[in-house]
Amino acid sequence: MNKTEMMLIVDDNEINRMLLDNIFSGDYRILEAENGQEAMEKLIRYKDSICAVLLDVVMPVMDGMEVLEKLKMMGWTEWMPVFLITAETEGSTLQRAYSLGVMDVIHKPVVPYIVERRINSVIELFQARKRLKHKVEEQQTEILAQARRIIDLNVGLIEALATTIEFRSGESGSHVRRIHDITRHLLLYTELGQGLSEETVEQIALASIMHDVGKVAIPDAILNKPGKLTPEEYEIMKTHTLRGAELLERIPQLKDQEAYQYAYDIARHHHERWDGNGYPDGLKGDENTIWAQIVSIADVYDALVSRRVYKDAYGADTAVRMIQNGECGAFNPLLLEQFMSVEKDLRALYVKDVTENG
């Protein structure tokens, strides 16, 4: 046995305590208590070191059954074996003791070799279970760490895929990060995210960075054209929504991610409009999901206040006025209302970008 483990002997009779001490002191460090109240004080003080409790029933101040009730209520009998050492033979008392979590009842007068064998066997069982529990916890921690590394890798690949498109169009990658942050902010801090868990919000925000992934299929001459697109070029540009959805659909590893369903929907539908005049499917009103609508307004806002190859940046006030006036298409009235309620907060994202990018 491990002498660093403590055994608590609780009995108001000194001779009984001495007898039990003589049996177990060779294997354990012995603590003694004369009543239940003193026992509880020592249990609380040394709970991480006590491997077993030998408990009398009839004691002054606080009896053994009261101690059991407290230990049961605290959940300690699940991991700390308690043995009733008693002359009590009343069936109802013993039944109550077992219902409160006692591992075994040993009747007085005790027979040393019998009590030693019975108690040590149970303690060994509890210690083996504790070691197994620790081993399982260690393995779970390692599995969770591996899962976290896989998730981080997947997120990194998703971000790299999205940022590649920004580099092609002369961006630094800050556009996708701002779309992520705007989407997340609108879902967390307005009514638009009502009913969504924080984890779902994070998945939608991650998915939002892939909204323009289909632009990988758009020729550079159109993607980076400094002037206005011709009607024919505009039709080609519009196909990036379909190409993006198709591309995401062809990545089997991505389909295993929770973000996939949101990413597909956003890539295909972030250019739909409330009045049905968007593309590619002409969705009208609430036919389009709220997350695709959020990315839509985030994309428009960011495009207006940022410099592009075909335009200079507008001021935030001008951008807001253009969105409200319908110059950038029709938006859900509730979406507009909630967007306006936090738009001043969103401006901080652009101050941050200026600071980080010099």
Give a verbal description of the structure:
- The chain has 358 residues and is α/β, with parallel strands linked by helices.
- The protein has 15 helices and five strands.
- The protein has helices spanning 14-24, 36-46, 64-74, 91-99, 112-168, 174-189, 198-208, 220-223, 231-238, 240-249, 252-255, 259-269, 290-305, 316-324, 333-357, and strands spanning 6-10, 29-33, 50-55, 82-86, 104-107.
- The protein has a five-stranded parallel β-sheet, with helices on both faces.
- α4 (91-99) links the parallel β4 (82-86) and β5 (104-107).
- The radius of gyration is 34 Å and the shape is rod-shaped.
- 32% of the residues are buried.
- Mean pLDDT is 87; it is low at 354-358.
